[in-house]
Write a structure and sequence with these properties.
Layout (H helix, E strand, L loop, with lengths): L1 E5 L9 H13 L4 E7 L15 E5 L7 H19 L3 E5 L3 H11 L3 E5 L19 H4 L12 H12 L4 E4 L2 H11 L4 E2 L16 E5 L7 H10 L5 E4 L6 H5 L3 E4 L6 H4 L2 E6 L9 H7 L5 E4 L4 H5 L3 E4 L5 H10 L3 H15 L4 H16 L4
Helix pairs in contact: 2-3, 3-5, 10-13
């Protein structure tokens, strides 16, 4: 079978959604002819897409001043590659999904869309909150807002063409409910495609926090480090302003690494104090492979990633609840129980099992054997 995959950041992955998509493409390329399309990067040296054994084509760089016009540009480029490649099926996600589905529909090609985030229907990335759904008045018309023109047309376009996709795939049960609520579309649930990480000698010494951004809860981590001066914290990733992190002697700042196993091998507890409803909690599922308990916000799809291998916090802005959870894990008996639970829960996210789940959904819903 010939597969065309379309993803904006294919050549320069920015997060777990792109990594999951890339992992799927690698697996599909073992048994199918696969061609992929992604946005051209400004600096060729930024492209960290490895040699995977399938063709990768570039769409000229798009500028998000007016997203509606970007859709038209993507339509033109995807149509060109469909004509050239003649694929049997199209797989896509994120900002390039709706225009790709439109072109696939007009070419009579079945399409699959992964729903991993909120860009198709919510400007504020918080669709679970109470709102009037007057999107054009929600986010303002600031200079750097890509939705400031034609916002209503953008979301009407998204909703119409996503509904025409042959199959929508949500990355959590939480996300399935959000998609149904906002778009009125039923979607299959397939958890993210996560590779089994190489296990290194485990020397757990740190309370670790990954991706120090405000919406990820960096302020809570800073407060906890202040309140627990005798505990060692590790903060992984780039922070726009890391001075506050570096001023505390018990925080070790580590840049992004190619192999995350080295980080987990030194982690005793993973903190995930997210302030927004993440569709899934990829780092929780990764840490579970190492038997690392998580202390995480009860928000979005994070509880599905944690399972019973950690502690969920309801009042995510209250440092006292986080302190109590850390103290609870000081009990070796409790820690070992949650560690065992985490390892057991990680078995639900093994790559082979998730690939099989995806193939099963495609077979049952579309009658296609991938």
């Amino acid at each position: 079978m010939k597969i065309l995959a379309v993803e904006e950041h294919l050549l320069n992955p920015r997060g777990g959604g792109e990594l999951s998509f890339r992992t799927l493409l690698t697996e599909l390329s073992r048994n199918h002819v696969l061609c992929a399309v992604g946005k051209r990067v400004s600096d060729p040296f930024q492209a960290n897409f490895p040699v995977l054994g399938f063709s990768v084509f570039e769409i000229p760089r798009t500028h998000m001043l007016n997203k509606y016009l970007v859709f038209r540009q993507v339509e033109h480029q995807v149509a060109k590659y469909i004509e050239r490649i003649s694929p049997d099926i199209l797989i896509t996600q994120q900002d390039f999904a709706a225009p790709s589905v439109k072109v696939a529909c007009r070419a009579g090609i079945p399409s699959i869309v992964f729903m991993r985030n909120y860009e198709h229907f919510c400007l504020c990335s918080d669709p679970a909150r109470e709102c009037s759904r007057h999107c054009s008045a929600c986010y303002g018309y600031g200079k750097y807002n890509p939705y400031r023109y034609c916002v209503d047309a953008v979301f009407a376009y998204e909703k119409h063409w996503l509904a025409q996709a042959s199959l929508l795939v949500s990355n959590s049960t939480y996300m399935k409910h959000i998609v149904e609520d906002w778009l009125g579309i039923d979607s299959a649930v397939v958890y993210p495609f996560i590779r089994t990480l190489p296990i290194m000698p485990h020397k757990p010494e740190y309370i670790t926090f990954i991706n120090p951004k405000k919406h990820k809860g960096v302020e809570i981590v800073l407060r906890l480090a202040e309140l627990l001066p005798d505990r060692a914290f590790m903060v992984v990733g780039h922070a726009p302003d890391s001075r506050e992190l570096r001023v505390l002697p018990n925080i070790t700042c580590v840049p992004w690494v190619d192999e995350i196993s080295g980080i987990y091998s030194r982690t005793r507890i993973l903190l995930v104090p997210s302030r927004w409803p993440e569709p899934f909690g990829r780092v929780c599922a990764e840490a579970a492979q190492f038997g690392i308990p998580c202390i995480a916000s009860r928000a979005g799809g994070i509880p599905e990633a944690v399972g019973d291998g950690g502690i969920l916090i309801n009042a995510r802005d209250d440092p006292d609840d986080w302190l109590r959870a850390i103290e609870t894990l000081d009990s070796e008996a409790v820690y070992q129980e949650l560690s065992r639970n985490a390892r057991h829960h990680a078995e639900n996210f093994t790559l082979g099992r998730i690939i099989e789940s995806f193939q099963s959904q495609v077979r049952e819903r579309l009658g296609i054997q991938l």
